[in-house]
Design goal:
The protein has 2 domains: 55 residues; 116 residues, Cathepsin D, subunit A, domain 1, CATH 2.40.70. The chain has 194 residues and is α+β, with helices and mostly antiparallel strands.
Amino acid sequence: MKDEFVTKKTGRSVHNSAFIIPHSALSRASGGAVMLVIGWLIIIGIVFWVYHGWSERQSNPNRVLVSAPTGEVVLQRNRAGQYVADGEINGERVTFLLDTGATQVALSTPLARALRLKPGPSVTLQTAAGPARGYTVRLDSVRLAGIEMRNVGALVSDGMDPGLVLLGMNFLKRLEMVQRGDQLVLRPMPDGSR
């Protein structure tokens, strides 16, 4: 016995059997829906990947640096007007923010731990955000492309961005810096210091 009901729109009676969909048709329909969802997820993933790569290049256009035979390094300014570049501390890859307002190289406590740096004396730091506690450390080497300095003093503070190392004046003062448009040219000083 089939159930019968009257539709509101047409006033006609319709048998319930008209709404029974064979199982194989449901499988095809759900399989198609799954493929559609997978297709959209792939498209969204590709768009995210492309945008993320573009965004990374905009924030740090100096991921791969090459030094001239003279030791000269040319940095591109990022979209925020800053010079950010990848380099190394004690052979470990880090991201530097060149900061002529920083007296010394400065890094975060989590990064100092990851680099296994031995804490020195505790100090009070004067930062743009106000006083902060930190400690001094010695870095065996600091490298920006072909420019490397050894036995560099640094400060470690909890208030630092864990993803950036401020490349301060105790490193930068040993370089000749020339800004041309959106580029900063760094050259080692002839005697290595100023």
